[in-house]
Amino acid sequence: MDVLQLQRKLREHQAAMLREGFLDDQFSQLQKLQDESSPDFVIEVVKMFFDDSEKLLHNMTRALGQVPVDFKQVDAHVHQYKGSSASVGAARVKNVCATFRNFCETQNLEGCVRCLQQLQQEYSLLKNNLQYLFRLQEEIQAAGGSIPTIE
Amino acid sequence: MGFLGDYDGKVWLNNWWEKNLGNTCKQYYYKYNSLRRSWWRKLWHAYVVFWIVISSSRFLHMSSEATEKRKESLVSLCDERARMLQDQFNVSMNHIQAMSILISTFHHAMDPSAIDQKTFARYTERTAFERPLTSGVAYAVRVLHSEREQFEKQQGWTIKRMDTLEQNPVQEDDFALEALEPSPIQEEYAPVIFAQETIKHVISVDVLSGKEDRQNVLRARESGKGVLTAPFRLLKTNRLGVILTFAVYKKELPSNATPDERIQATDGYLGGVFDIESLVEKLLQQLASKQSVIVNVYDTTNHTDPIAMYGSDVLGDEFYHVSTLNFGDPFRKHEMHCRFKQKPPWPWEAIHSSVGMLVIAVLIGYILYATVNRMFISEDNYNEQMELKKRAQAADVAKSQFLATVSHEIRTPMNGVLGMLNMLMDTDLDVTQQEYVRTAQGSGKALVSLINEVLDQAKIDSGKLELEAVVFDLRAILDDVLLLFSEKSQGKGVELAVYVSDEVPEQLIGDPGRFRQIITNLMGNSIKFTEKGHIFVTIHLVEEVVHSIEVEPQSTSKDTLSGYPVADIRRSWEGFKAFSQEGPLGSFSSPSSELVNLIVSVEDTGVGIPLEAQSRIFTPFMQVDPSISRKHGGTGIGLSISKCLVGRMNGEIGFVSIPNIGSTFTFTAVFTNGSPNSKEGRSQQINNQPHLASSEFHGTNALVIDPRPIRAKVSRYHLQRLDIRVELVSDLDQGLSLITNGNSAISIVFIEQEVWDRDSSISLHFVNNTRKVDPPKLFILVNSNSSFRASSVNSGDPFPVVITKPLKASMLAVTLQRAMGVGNRGNTRNVELPSLSLQHLLRGRRILVVDDNSVNRTVAAGALKKYGADVVCVSSGKDAISKLKPPHQFDACFMDIQMPEMDGFEATRRIRELEHMASIEASMDADGNNSKLRVPILAMTADVMQATNEECLKSGMDGYVSKPFEAEQLYREVSRFFPTS
What we know:
Chain A is mainly α. Chain A has six helices and no strands. Chain A has helices at residues 3-19, 25-33, 41-65, 71-88, 91-106, 109-142. Chain A is elongated. Chains A and B meet through helix 2, helix 3 and helix 4 of A and helix 26 of B.
């Protein structure tokens, strides 16, 4: 595939993710931190985020399955997740986390469960989108092009 | 009342001291005061009453004395009159008695009688002067009934009775004896046989037939003494009179003869008519003060019905005196009543003296009362004023506290607003939106600086302003300030320069923030009001300046930084006490190694301060002109804050300003020397500054071509800080000859823009000639970007690098590094200072990042690494504690606040405890490195609003940054701990 086309695709995809709220400005900041000294910085961070997400989502599921539910425990996990998502700029995940924490505070089990499902859904969507993004980047790099930054 | 007052007085006294401490006693005081006041009022009333009593008693006393005196005089007058009356009466009476003896001798004892009516009348007439009181005398002979006929025959008239006479008193002289009836038959008769001419009509009247006369006659012959009748109207004169009757006896009788014997021996009766009225009148006429005294004489034989004998009914004084009169008749009693004609006069003397006394006493009392009253009033006023003053002070303190609190409270959300605006700037904005955000940001920053000023003023007002004492680098601070104003000055085309004397130690101990605030304020003012020329900051030791005053004459007015005339700097410190007090060589002549006296001048070529406004420019909120604030903004408290701050630094501030020439502000400040030996310390310090990399330029020779000595001096100052040796020449030709012929190889040439622009052919010639030898690097020093005409120089190699003033050592260093290290880039470029300093900010710094969230941790570490830091990450508070054990291996720590097990606050508290213990140990070891004992810890938080500065500071943190890292905020926070260039 043409490098230029790939680059355009990447730009469009990334713009779409920003537009649809999957990502926010923080992700752009993250990209700015990436330079010659740490070429894979963004990918590293995002991978770390993926691992973190899966671990936390699992923990949340388990915590919500207990009887009685330890909402504080759940809240701690959600807080962690909120921090991670904020750091990578996963805006929609972060927003769901905020709602989730409200439910934890009011000890609304039904709301929590719904939020957890929503989180899982958002996460998988984000993961797919990001993986696609990275794949595009790899392809561009493989084709010898440079990755365009979003202005 | 008195007791109560006393009691309260004691209570009050007991509480007097407490009153100064608390309010409770105020009530006592007021209670006491009102009590005292009513007490005083009562005392005043009592006083007035007392004096009224005194004066009225005096009045009574004096008036009674006067009455007494009057009484006494009346008594003496009366007694005198009575005595004289009595004497005169006695004289007459004695004479009458003598006549009775005459009659008994010449009438009864001789036969025929030697006396007949004619003789008697003549004799009595002639001796009337002897009896001034008698109007007439008559002699009645005792005739028994048996002898009546013979007697009547002998005399030739019949004895007549008196009754009718008495009943019909006849006033006329021609009254007829014949009209009288002959006396009826009686046992005995006593017809008058002799009578004085005046009373001739009584001859032949039987005196025994008259009721009064009969009594008289009977009593007279029984007693043998003169006897008086009750007063009656005299026959002819109709005046009041009495008749005195003496009995004439046949023979001398013993004094103890019985009445019967006397009756038997009686021959006849001699009567004298006393005209009492005329008697008394005559008597009184002889006496003085007859007018003033009214005399009444009464016959008081019958007590219940006294008969008036003399005197009118004229009303006189109520008071009268009674003197008894003794006219020799024990049966009859007479009294003399005397009274003053006039009523007693008003006792004016008593009235005057007592009223006068009362008036004086009342006046004195009133003066006292008024004084005391006034005292109370002023006391009240005083208390009121004190109360008001206290309230005003409290209000003032409250105001300052309120200002401080509000300012502080505003700052916190404002930081949030500014942070958010910054983040907003980074989002996708179109040009208009960016413009809006930039404006909002600018306004926000202005607001924060305004709030800071107000906060400062409030702190100064409430006395809470405290100065730090930390080690700082004066030159670095000035570089910072220059950076702050460089944009503005470049925009205006005003030259900005700083010169710090070599004598000033590199490291000083004091409050850098406040020092910087003063300079910023003065420079800010200068830049506001300067449109052309320059702003020049110089810092010397006071000793230097003092000596230069003596040695150097004032440099000519043309020899200034920009060539514009300036105000005479020396006049700005004319008022300084330190200078005038002990003379130029006084307190500063012997520089102590401990204290550093700096003198800082900020000189501008602005509009100056109008003369009329110069006196009040240090007054808070005063501006030269209200229009100034509209034009230039500002609150007008900057200078007053500066003055306070200078005062706190034991310095003084002064200025000189000439309208349209410029102003020069000068202040002194006292700091402590931070480097043990100023010269050594300085060179060390420069070498220790990693970002300056001055060692790179060690041994380099530079040439500065500048016709103005002062400007050249400034350039040299900055270059010397980089350890570059500097030569100064004034034009290109000199420079060329120095380069080509000089002993030392000159590798850098700085040319002032004005020299370069003067003649492009000379410049070109210079460039071409220097190229022949080992070509030095050429730098053009320009004032502002726009003013340099790049076209004036042909493109060629080496192309001069343009350096935009103001000069700064760090900026010079970077530029030189780039120009010399990287080589000639061949294009004119300007240095972007803020990003450069940020890139160098964290170079070589070891920073610990503490966050339990691996993603966050990686992002933070990435950001810090990007700025050149050496980052170590740990994932929990406990790990952080184990890493952060004094002496520290890290330069700073960024810590997440919300962490499981141990949050950031707790971890920081523990670290601070460890540090505290370590510092105690270190102080025992004498010379511990302080900077290794305390690591700056900055909180990381996603929520600006949530974690306020206070919370962080409370647990020992030094500040906070919001996540994700944002360049400017990072710079702001970190720069507080790492000395910047």
